[in-house]
Amino acid sequence: MKLAEWWGWARRRIRRAEPREPAIGLALGGGFARGIAHIGVLRVFEQHRIPIRYIAGVSAGSIVAAAFASGRSAEEIAGVAGHMRFRDVARWTLSRMGLMDSDRMEGFLKKLLKAYTFEQMRIPLAVVATDLNAAKPVVFRDRGEVFLPIRASCAYPGLFRPIRYDGRYLVDGAITMEIPALPLREMGATHVVSVVLPMPTPLVDPQNLFRVVNQCFQILQARTDWEWRKHSDVVVAPEVSGSGWDSFGDSERLIAAGEQAARAALPMILAWIEGRVTPRARQPGRARA
Fold first, then answer.
1. Which of 53, 93, 154, 237 is the most exposed place for a label (fewest CB within 10 A)?
2. Regarding beta strands 24-28 and 91-92, do their DSSP bridges make them parallel or antiparallel, or are they unpaired?
3. Contact call for residues 130 and 137 (beta carbons, < 8 A)
4. Is 238 in contact with 37 (CB distance < 8 Å)?
């Protein structure tokens, strides 16, 4: 082997051996008002300068993910969450498809976000909805406005009217993908932190139609959570089981719960950044429509 060839071979081996900065992806699950807990996770990441290379969300998580991706800080998002009420994003309507319309959400998002399209986001963003016709997830991430994807991702069946898009009906992304860990892998994340917001356990006696539907989803998701866990390296689970779906006035406690859960995961995440721990190898999957 000639000297130049040997040197080229040696340089390639050295580059492969050098520790690379992890490409961390953050996946935010749904939970209505309980999604405010995601802000606490973001606050801890900011405090410790943990770089988020990619971010994805479903349902309430899509709102927080889009705000952060657009350039809002955790503190700015918390300021909005502290004054947010359900009527800011929904209104009652007469429809056979749902009890509420989410058209108000677009105005809310225009005030919250600093960028309105996927192309303008400072952090690559993915928003997951569910295609009712095809019975599979739809991942929005490359181009176009974020308003319709977020409204679709938040369209809880029975409560919100489905969103009509490209000849299809779209509803809550959590139906087919409770936590959007897989899209982060497809975007290039080497390390995935998934944030899940647990429901009350044991289940309480349902008092109305919404709670009946909600607990049915909880039972279903408990049986399929392995699907997103296999694409996650760390799972952060804020203790929010004592908060209801409409607990918007409980923002301080929810944010504190997110902070506490994120701090518990810090040792592992910091070890990634310092190159002391490498997550196990994973096989990429498919989740795009």
1. 93
2. unpaired
3. yes
4. yes
